[in-house]
Amino acid sequence: MYKITLDVDGMACGMCEAHVNDAVRKAFQVKKVTSSHSKGRTEIISETELDADKLKAVIEASGYDVLDMKTEPYEKKGFSLFHRG
């Protein structure tokens, strides 16, 4: 799994976040996508690495600018109430 973090300029509200999230979901099969206009960031969790050029183009076609992109391996963190050390 991969975590892709994008710095996105131009998001001003919750609807902007929704536009970016919807654009990503329509173009790629992802596990999770969340955006924050206050942080200017979009985070994507995906089974496979995404095409960086296509991802940037999809977001910019929605009217927002991608300033930076970082891809890193992602491991889901386990959570249990019963296994305390």
Automatic annotation (TrEMBL):
Record CDD domains: HMA (cd00371)
Domain of life: Bacteria
Protein name in UniProt: Cation transporter
Pfam family, one: HMA
Domain HMA: start-end pairs: 2-67
SUPFAM superfamilies: HMA, heavy metal-associated domain
InterPro entries, A to Z: HMA_dom, HMA_dom_sf
